Amino acid sequence: MIKVERIAAMKLDKKQAVAYAALAAEEAFGKKAEGVKDLGGGSFGRAFGVALPGGKSIVVKLLRAGDMLEKETHDLELLRRHCPVRIPAVLFSRRADERVPVDCYGMEMIEGKPALYALSFLLAGEKKRRAFAEAVTDAQYALHQCTAARFGDTLAPAYDRWQDFYRPFAAAVLEKAEEMHAAGDLGEKIILPMRAAWEKFDVIFSEEVERACLIHGDLNVGNIMIGRGYRLTGFIDPLNSMYADREYDLFQFDNLTGKRFFLSETYRRKFGASQYCDQKLAFYGLWNEVFCYIKSGVLVDLIMDPLVKNMGRRLAEL
Ligand SMILES: Nc1ncnc2c1ncn2[C@@H]1O[C@H](COP(=O)(O)OP(=O)(O)O)[C@@H](O)[C@H]1O
Ligand SMILES: [Mg+2]
């Protein structure tokens, strides 16, 4: 089972991080880095573009929590084998040691930038945004065609039924959320809709999930890359990649600006959806965000607020 607890992130100042990224790349390629650029990152990861002599640039990602390196590099390789859209190849992977005291790996640099940061694309005409949704969901559907006999983590799927994995996980998240609520760290705004949704768990999840499909796990617009002319250039940054209910790969689409690109709508129109898909996506989205809050201690209202609202709305439809 996935651990539902706070994860300590290693402290790393920017200057050190830049130096470590350069060192790791220099060691792997036997060449002096010509430049290092901070590409950004979240609670546990930070990515750097490293320019090597000869015009080649790679990305080095530093992982500030243990237990991530093996899974993240494994999942990139696995997804890459099954995805028609580019996913960065892993070029090297190295555990923390005295020289570079943080886990890290190097990967190919994908052209372009995350769709989330392409302001002009957000404002582009509907036709362009719909074409993007087609390209993204076609590639995602190809990933979902890779199935396993069992559900669970890509490294060791162990559950015969999706519910056997998801129910205990959801229960553990709720239990931790209740603890945080009691301690004053999680407000009524969040715990009330969680309680209401939990009451309806057996209805929302009454339909059996037939297939254990490979999912990216964090396919939001921050991890979908676009290049010139808003062409889809790749997917990056898988997280919690699993053999799962394929609809578990859709709730991320609605986070941030995803709705603007009709992503989840397009997938469902083209490839179908289960009876309670709206309720499931609301549940998955809210639970995942609370899970992220539990792990990182960071609450992002911009993401959380719409999830809370959507959960209430979807419950009212039942
Ligand atoms: N392989 C890559 N090619 C190009 N840019 C990348 C690549 N990997 C990461 N980036 C850039 O670095 C940023 C942070 O990397 P990401 O892996 O998404 O970290 P996090 O896990 O913190 O979200 C991304 O938003 C993207 O701009
Ligand atoms: Mg990311």
Structure report:
- With 318 residues, the chain is α+β, with helices and mostly antiparallel strands.
- It has two domains: 14-108, Phosphorylase Kinase, domain 1; 113-316, Aminoglycoside phosphotransferase (APH), C-terminal lobe (Aminoglycoside 3'-phosphotransferase, Chain: A, domain 2).
- It is built from ten helices and twelve strands.
- It has helices spanning 14-29, 69-82, 119-122, 126-144, 162-182, 188-199, 201-204, 263-271, 277-296, 301-316; strands at 35-41, 45-51, 57-63, 90-94, 103-108, 113-114, 147-148, 152-153, 212-215, 224-226, 232-235, 242-244.
- The strands form three sheets. The chain has a five-stranded antiparallel sheet with strand order 1-2-3-5-4, sandwiched between helices. The protein has a four-stranded antiparallel sheet with strand order 7-9-12-8. Strands 6-10-11 form a three-stranded antiparallel sheet, with helices on one face.
- The longest helix has 21 residues, at 162-182.
- The structure holds adenosine-5'-diphosphate (ADP) and magnesium ion (MG).
- Give the strand line-up of the largest sheet: 1-2-3-5-4
In whole angstroms, the N-to-C terminal distance is: 30 Å
Q: If helices are DSSP runs of H or I spanning 4 or more residues, what is the number of helices?
A: 10
The gross shape turns out to be: globular
Supply Rg: 20 Å
Oligomer: single chain
